[in-house]
Amino acid sequence: MTSSARCKTDRIYAEQAEKLPPCRTGCPGGADVRGWIGVIAQREKSGLPADEAYRRAWEIIVDRNPFPSVMGRICPHPCEDGCNRVDKDGAVSINAMERFIGDWAIERAWALPVMDEGPQAESIGVIGAGPAGLSFAYQMARRGYSVHVYEASDTPGGMLRHGIPAYRLPEDILAAEIARIVAVGVELHLASRIGGDLSLAKLRERHDALFLGIGAQRARRLGIPGEDGPGVWTGTEYLGRKKNGQPIDLGRKVAVIGGGNTAIDAARSARRDGAEVVLVYRRSRDEMPAADHEIEDALVEKVGIECLAAPVEIRRNDGHVRTLIVQKMELGELDASGRRRPVPIGGKQTEMEVDSVITAVSQEPEWDRLDQEAPDGARMESRLWAGGDALGLGTASIAIAQGRLAAETMQAELRGLPAPQPLSDHTVQTGQVKLDYYDGQERVQRAHIPTAQWLSQPDMEVDRTITREAFEGEAGRCLSCGLCFGCQQCWMYCNPSGYTRLETVGPGMYFSFDPEKCEGCGKCIEICPSGYLAPSE
Fold this sequence. Notes:
This protein is of the alpha/beta class.
């Protein structure tokens, strides 16, 4: 039947049309979640041994993100928010699975894959060995460039190393994933602070292109009376000193100002120092930007949370912090962030007895040290790029994604190739997936050490990696949204045998389809559980 003849009928003709799953479009880095989970879930159909399937899955992850073990611990996993399985029995535990496969690779000392593009002539400089800088460095080194990373600290990692407590991210995990990046061919220049003799201008002369991946190390001030002086710490300062083993005397009662992840980390760390802690946040709990499970864990550790409250003054006695004056707030109209603006309630102030205050409201990069204005986009000028906190505060997953995208774009510019294109916006929605086809299966929950040990062993990691059995079982919960997973429904229901089973199979490759044999009954589209089959246009 010709296409013109088809147009004269009201029948529904099928086509195989791969679509994006919501886990991928929800990930800041566009991680191919369905791809790597599908390798695990369908390994028996594909005839893959477990070790080979695990290796392939891991290589799919590290193609875009060289930190799966780290991100499996600290990522707020927005990929799970849009998972179509939420409407059945809970999202697939993508984050816990990523942690498992990341740890599996570390235990087996797998090396990061490089691209077969040969050595490149250009030398690339990177300022900052945080997540953005290291992600960029990895992507350029694996493409054959000579990459030099300049880091002000004497250890690489940026906020991953200095700003995230050990109970969330153990030192050995971070060190292992950084070591793999260095092994690809990245040269680290530690204790190399930009400024003075080592200026940005000199680095531009030394290298053919530069990437600025500086972190947001400078904390923003509250701007209230009493803020200057002993007993007041910024969140990054406090967490950094703890990670470096430097003692801090917080006293018995501590107020932490802020509602983000740094504030939660500081509050939970202060509890581990034996302090009574109250977190003070000017909006409601619903507006807190910190990850929900981190807030819940803080409550388990008996961190108090005072919402709709803003600090207005720190009072001292003989120079020591004694009282925090707090203004009660209410929520007004929406502001530019999309959240309701906190508005003071006249005449309602309270006093909190405190010995220390930790401020964690925001941070910003030190652009003045580089003698450089803050960028308004990733491409600052020819062969000068920026990413991570240099473009605005965000999560480590955003920083890693920006580093990768800058590398791909710089590679295109240096080689005269087309610029990388964004993912399509054709995402499979819940209504396109036949949830009733899939068996119900309870979601794997985060495992953790007994809560009694959380504070008694302050540096012990709270969360545990899921078991291998749980990992493989959770992979089986993936719906494979928008891609064939070999259920055979189309093949069984097609009367004219328009579908032919392939000899070599794998995710998305189980059946070929001959549109000339299609009678337009639409049955295969109706019963396709993953939303892969669609009406032809």
